[in-house]
Amino acid sequence: MALPPGEFIRAILFRGLVIWFGMKLVVTAGAAALRQSGETESWLRVLQLTPSAVLLLTGFVTWLVIIDAGRRNELLFLANLGVARYVIGSLAAVPSITCEIIIGLM
Amino acid sequence: MTAAPLLVAESIGKTFGTRRVLNSASLWVRSGVITVVVGRNGEGKSTLLKIAAGVLRPDFGTVRYREEHFGRARLANLASKGVFFLPEHPLLCTSFTVRDHLMMIQRRFGGGGAADTAVESLEIGELLDRSPKTLSLGERRRADIALAVARRPDCLLADEPFLRITPKDAEAVADVFRALATAGCAIALTGHEVPMLFDVADEVSWMTAGTTHPLGSPDNAREHHQFGREYLGIGL
After folding, report:
1. Model ipTM value
2. Would you say residue B68 lies in a domain?
């Protein structure tokens, strides 16, 4: 299993983080809006997702990072460097999973 | 004696929707030999090359590289064993400069002075620090080919490498392909630029009705009546 060059690893992780943050904002805003008025749930409780929601969010983030990499012509160049698509997908999932674990532990 | 093929895509079939593009097409790529695949638009040249490179999955047929069978060939796997695929559309990523690309290839595969040689022979020195977004299509094409040279592949599959290249630059590109073949690289090229392609070709394969017809040397191909009439337009 070949890893992408460092420049690509940094770019993929950064994009994964930015997209996760954007998605998290949308999901959190949606969850807050759906709360019944008068509920006294803490903001942390709103941020925490169920495990299946975390998987769904991470899958969506990964998909968007791969679409973006394709748009930038990166998938074929990386394949020519011996980097398989699942490696790119796995890297793209790292920020989302890490941040969700941190939030879950808070 | 003919060298054994390094990469073989054999009896390949591929359908897109209801349209059958390839119907038992084959490609043999031999070390030190430049094989040119020609055919009319939509006959499946690019599809065959993509399947041989592991970019597309065939409906049926097999891909063999160094005698190893690939039920499902993938470019990343083949690339780590020496294959380089040059697509018809630009290969350079928009996020990095040309120099970044060359450095990444050099760090991954070594290659000694191959990158410098590529820069010099394709005259892309002044393009090195520019983003691919600022390059013309012809400049991008030359930079793409420079990446292939820097990789020093054992097998190069190039889809329409002469597309949008000026006649002067085409001569430099042809020299680069010849040098790679002389160094033992197995090369397959597609395209429509018959004079340029036949100039570098050792073998010609004609693709029509979804299948390939090996025609031998360029001279033999020119003398092939059906090929001359239906593709070159001779004697119409």
Report:
1. 0.91
2. yes
State the pTM of this model.
0.90
Of A7, A73, A79, the CB nearest to B104: A7
Quote the CA–CA distance of A26 and B175 in Å, as a whole number: 55
Q: Chain B: nearest CA to A89, how far in angstroms? A: 14
Comparing CB atoms, the residue among B79, B89, B101 nearest residue A82 is B79
Indicate the number of domains in chain B. Answer: 1
User: Nearest-5° angle of CA A29, CA A34, CA A40?
Assistant: 90
What number of H helices and E strands is found in chain B?
Answer: 9, 10
Tell me the chain A residues in contact with residue B96 when contact means C-beta distances shorter than 8 Å: 7
Identify whether B123 is part of a domain.
no
State mean pLDDT over B158-163. 93
Whether residue A84 and residue B76 make contact (CB cut-off 8 A), yes or no, is: yes
Confidence of residue B71 (pLDDT cuts 50, 70, 90): confident
Q: What is the domain extent for residue B19? A: 5-93+153-232
Kindly indicate the confidence band of residue A39, based on its pLDDT and cuts at 50, 70 and 90.
low
DSSP bridge pairs for B65: B7, B68
Cβ of B91 and A2 within 8 Å?
A: no
